[in-house]
What we know:
The chain has 215 residues and is α+β, with helices and mostly antiparallel strands. The N and C termini lie far apart (56 Å). The longest helix is centred in the first third of the chain and has 23 residues, at 58-80. Helices cover 23% and strands 33% of the residues. Residues 2-9 have low confidence and may be disordered.
Amino acid sequence: xxxxxxxxxxxxIRKICSVTEDLVAELGAPVSTPVRRVAVAAxxxxxxxxxxxxxxxxxxxxxxxxxxxHELTARLIGALGGTSLVEAFGKAAIxxxxxxxxxxxxxxxxxxxxxxxxxxxxxxxxxxFSDDRVDAGASLTVPMWHKTEAATRSHYxxxxxxxxxxxxxxxxxVIAAGSSGGRPNARIGDRTSDPVVRLADxxxxxxxxxxxxxx
Length: 215
């Protein structure tokens, strides 16, 4: 991971890190179209740390989330080479052990982050996500899918993020992720063109019903 500099001082950001994967081969053979996956993570002071259970999180969400959306998305787009090259996206947050899992969710699930991230990347899909409450150095898998066609199965993929010294007990790591394409050599079809598969028609279901009836 590479540590970055942050211009905004309206949010207590300790560091911004990025991870980049260039997928060029599978099973020793070149992929048909090389794909770049990027995740950008901001390590921030938890704005609710030390305050107990805060009933209304909106004030801090409105102040912090838009800053993170702009800071992270700008770096993500730059790493992928431009907005038009962002084909898939995802988001995530990791809260330290001194915070609530709701603190992580508050900074990525409201329009103050999600809508801005989606608009800045010219997407329209709901943004797939993950979140967790962990100790510093834990890894989180961030899922992604197509930014405008969520049913496009080729773009279902993940990127793993780990910041060795974060989140500290009073910190949150907020992550924006994106990819320039789908999985290497994707070939399992698409949800929009799948055949109709019903539970009642599946042989395994029929065998299960027979087994249940014999008990």
